Amino acid sequence: MNDLRDLYQEVLLDHSKRPRNFGVLEDADHHAVGHNPLCGDKVVVYLRMEGDRIADIRFQGQGCAVSQASASMMTESVKGKTRAEAEALFERFHELLTGTEPETASPELGKLAIFAGVRKYPVRVKCATLAWHTLRAALERKAEMVSTE
Amino acid sequence: MSSAVDPVCSPTPQRPFDVGRVREDFPALHQRVQGKPLIYLDNAATTQKPRPVLEALRRFYEQDCSNVHRGVHTLSQRATEAYERARETVRRFLNARSEEEIIFVRGTTEAINLVAHSFGRARVRAGDEILISAMEHHSNIVPWQILCEETGARLRVAPINDEGELILDEFERLLTARTRLVAITHLSNALGTIPPVREVIQLAHARGIPVLLDGAQAVAHLKVDVQELDCDFYAFSGHKLYGPTGIGVLYGKAEWLEAMPPYQGGGDMISSVTFEKTTYNRLPYKFEAGTPHIAGAIGLGAAIEYVTALGLDAIAAHERDLLIYATEALSGIPGLRLIGTAREKASILSFTLEGIHPHDIGTILDHEGIAIRAGHHCAQPVMERFGVPATARVSFALYNTREEVDALVTALQKVREVFDL
Which of B17, B70, B209, B326 could form a disulfide with B314 if both were Cys (CB 3.0 to 4.6 A apart)? Predict the structure, then answer.
């Protein structure tokens, strides 16, 4: 059960059951839809930008615990950050999940470090990154649906 | 007529079904996954292979490897004989009238695409209709959609009820003067439903409409007799029947196949070629362009001989016992909802657990050494019909046991514990 708990940590389960910033952002000026055709997960990310800064962010979606918790924790992590800061955070996050370096999470990841457990489950990396890919698409104002495939 | 018993057709004397002994034939079952003994319950995706199949493949590549239908040398003759013997084994397995009606293809998907291309091009016009059901796998939806797009024909879909059963009245209403073909599963991969294919075929034939059965799931679990069913086409894959991947079969009534144009052009499917005119080969070779999957066909033949020796009826009885036992055991798990509760079912249990996504169930069960499928099972319209994005699916084969079902139930309790439910 132990390394299973590395994946399904309390924080992750908490966020998947009680996602933060969940729902439509009424005054959003950017949004994008993300889809993982492998498992049917879907996430919509809404943004309200103030200049280059993410003033507000919400998401909607359905999916596995990993994808829902990742989306929820992402919204908390990037709110108030600039586009470049959010992009840099995604790079770090992606490196944490897929990298070959030792699993020492960089300090700016904060709570997102709990996703290090996903590394042992390569097929679940897409679950954890779906919301982030969708955020990137929303920042780029891509109208089309993004897909993890 | 001679009264002597034909050794080929005489039934093999069958011992009572002994699952413990059968399991010994499958090397892949005897391994540990994540430190636990493997419990393989993803048989609707593909089955493990018994030793006789592995040995047939090895024997072909070690001793008889050569191309078919062309060489005058000994190896080529041996390969051709083994390949054609496999075709005869398939013919007997399906009880087709003739070997001409047995076409080797890559799998069910290619078999259905062959019919959609060849039958479709010859007989389907703008305004015509193809009728399928709401419980089809994508491979029995998309080829028809492509055909409809190309021809201007229309795809009609017969609905299913909340149990996952075909609504026969609605199906009958959708049979019209424009219907050119009915294509329906013989066993739903997402729900486990066995539709009333005999009635379907009778209703269609009463209006002169041919019927294709998608037998991808059915062949490993039900006895199939294409003459008794009177279906016009029957498609299945070797790998879901304990055979190799990359080989499958299209059965078609000779009168249809004769009338259909070739699917692919190339070697082996011709009898003569000039730049002015090519004459196509006779059946079944007209539909087998290029070097076939010779080893695959031989392996499939070995797989069919294996299940035939065990007896499809004995296998079906064993699996029915497992399905009943598992249905009852799973029903006791709080929050578990079975998707697909048809009266006529086989081998498949699709379900959801309240508050836990199937993908998470799959990961946690894998941790217990249990392989199941989580997802939409290439049947997204079925998921939509039941209002779920995905399900967890347990699917049985002849080598599964009640003890494995018990371990599954224990592991599902563990899934709930991980989620603090």
Answer: B17
